[in-house]
Amino acid sequence: MKPPPEGPGGQRISDDAVRRRTGRGWQEWFAVLDAAGARDWDHRRIVAFLVREYSLPDWWCQMVAVTYEQARGLREPHQTAAGYQVSAGKAVAVPLARLYRFWVDEALRQRWLPDVPLTVRRTTPDKSLRITWPNGSTKVDVNFYAKGPARSEVRLQHSRLPHRQAVEEMGAFWREALERLQAALEEGE
Fold first, then answer.
1. Contact (Cβ atoms closer than 8 angstroms) between residue 134 and residue 157
2. How far is Cα 25 from Cα 16, in angstroms, rounded to an integer?
3. Could you give the number of structural domains in the chain?
4. 61 closest CA partner among 35, 33, 27
5. Model-level pTM?
6. Does residue 1 fall inside a structural domain?
7. How far apart are CA 101 and CA 138, in angstroms?
């Protein structure tokens, strides 16, 4: 049996999950969209059709449209209208404020992300960072989540990557960087 289609960001959404949330399985959605002529439509038109004709919630419209585009070879995994993107995350055994500080404090960040001069465009304390990558053409959105008094999680999305190879390269880069972050957090300040 073929595995469930890959959704945006590479996650697998089961046929049962999509059916529970939308009333149809993947193959049914693909048949609906094929019959409507969606192979010749852009992403916005597919989403508009799903909203208008099926009243799907926004997130599910996007999921069905992107998964359809990927299944029909109209879009590669990790591809968006603005290029490619990769996501990474790490749960750590430290309070949220400490995790956040290791991102915003330049000296602490250099311990785990050396020689990467980030441009922080916007911050929401203990919640998020919006960063321009040193090349100036890609961006990183970082979100922080409390998972208890002494546990937290960071999730990031590096977007506007130029090609599929950059997804692989930056995915490996971020996995390694987040391992270094975890080690630096465990060492103390």
1. no
2. 7
3. 2
4. 33
5. 0.69
6. no
7. 23
Tens of pLDDT, residue by residue over 89-142, are 999 999 999 999 999 999 999 999 999 999 999 999 999 999 999 988 899 999
Same-domain status, 87 and 176: yes
Beta strands across the sheet bearing 119-124: 79-80, 83-92, 151-161, 139-148, 128-132, 119-124
Concatenated DSSP letters for 57-106?
A: -HHHHHHHHHHHHHHTTSS-TTEETTEEEEEEEEEESS-HHHHHHHHHSH
Residue 24, domain extent: 8-77
| Residue-wise pLDDT tens digits, 25-82 | 999 999 999 999 999 998 999 999 999 999 999 899 999 998 998 889 888 777 777 7
One domain for residues 60 and 110: no
Measured from the Cβ of residue 113, the count of other Cβ atoms closer than 10 Å reads 19
Determine the residue type at 71: A
